[in-house]
Design brief:
This is HD domain-containing protein. The chain is mainly alpha-helical. It is built from 16 helices and eight strands. The strands form three sheets. A three-stranded mixed beta sheet has the order 3-4-7. A three-stranded antiparallel beta sheet has the order 5-8-6, covered by helices on one side.
């Protein structure tokens, strides 16, 4: 059985392999349709597309650059199945790690039987997902890979930062040494998107709602029988319903959705004021593209300097309701 879809961002037509059709019918993949890729910022921005839309975009890129690499394509489909509700918002909370959860899901029903039915060893898929340095999907080189390429471009479109037609952009890209490579002008466009994404993550639009929702999750875990493991497998609508059903979280849950203008955010730790709370970013993503196969520092040092300047962005904040 085969099916075809065309990714709406990249406009890449993809003929799905039987294993891909089977995986897309499983609960872990379907669930991603109800998890916002932009996390808590979905309440304050137009970053409303789903984690499944991003997943299909990464599959489309894998199919474009490596059409016959079935293992890479399967890994592209499965790379985000462990994500928590609202994506990265709760990462690290109670030890939750979406990478570890995803690898565990690979080894159990319903994913494992689909893989085995079509001749894929779970160990091979696990290895492909474990940030292998030679993988163009999620390598550890610090260079731009397909997962982040789709994230930066898709987010840039939602935020109005994308100044190049994605299909044209794609025609100027290549994979070299397991990293995304571009001509100098296209690399500059990619760096613009990467910097814009970093500034979004350190802005009120992202920090404010994420800080509120994260502390609401802590209250929910403290006040109800909900376990971290159960929280990790919720969808976004299920999480909001849980907030609304708990007396300790319902008022602020409503405020963050309908009175967000009252939220204040400042850099640095909170003063000795019980009405404020602290929030820290775990990381700022700044993986760099290659320029004609060369590292940015060598081929375009001014672009490398733009990415290096992201290190000065604040990562510690405090917030309060006015």
């Amino acid at each position: 059985m085969t099916a075809t879809f065309t990714d709406p961002l990249w406009r890449i037509p993809v003929r799905l392999n039987p294993v891909e059709v089977g995986l897309l019918r499983t609960e872990p993949l379907r669930r991603l349709h109800f998890v916002a890729h932009g996390g808590a910022s979905t309440v304050s921005t137009l970053q409303s597309y789903s984690r499944l839309e991003h997943t299909l975009g990464v599959l489309a890129l894998a199919a474009h650059f490596r059409p016959d690499d079935e293992l890479l394509r399967v890994a592209a489909l499965l790379h985000d199945i462990g994500h928590l509700p609202l994506s990265h918002t709760f990462e690290g909370l109670s030890g939750l790690d979406h990478h570890a959860i995803g690898l565990q899901l690979l080894r159990t029903d319903p994913i494992r039987p689909v893989l085995e039915k079509h001749g894929f060893r779970t160990e091979a898929v696990t290895a492909a997902l474990d940030k292998h340095p030679r993988s163009p999907l999620t390598n550890r080189s610090g260079l731009l890979h397909l997962d982040h390429l789709d994230s930066f471009v898709r987010s840039g479109r939602a935020a109005g930062r994308l100044d190049t037609d994605p299909a044209v952009l794609l025609s100027r890209l290549d994979i070299r040494d397991a990293a995304v490579s571009a001509d100098r002008g296209t690399a500059a466009s990619l760096v613009h998107l990467i910097c814009g994404e970093a500034r979004l993550h350190t802005s009120w639009d992202s920090v404010g709602p994420a800080s509120v929702v994260r502390r609401l999750a802590c209250r929910l875990l403290d006040s109800t029988s909900l376990t971290p493991a159960r929280l990790a497998r919720m969808t976004d609508p299920q999480l909001w319903s849980a907030f609304d059903a708990c007396a300790r979280t319902e008022p602020e849950s409503a405020m963050v959705r309908y009175e967000l203008h009252r939220l204040r955010v400042r850099t640095g730790s909170a003063p000795r004021d019980r009405t404020a709370w602290n929030y820290s970013l775990r990381k700022i993503y700044s993986s760099a593209p290659l320029v004609e196969g060369q590292r940015l520092e060598t081929a375009a040092p001014e672009l490398a300097a733009e990415l290096d300047a992201l290190r000065a962005l604040p990562t510690t904040f405090h917030a309060w309701w006015s």
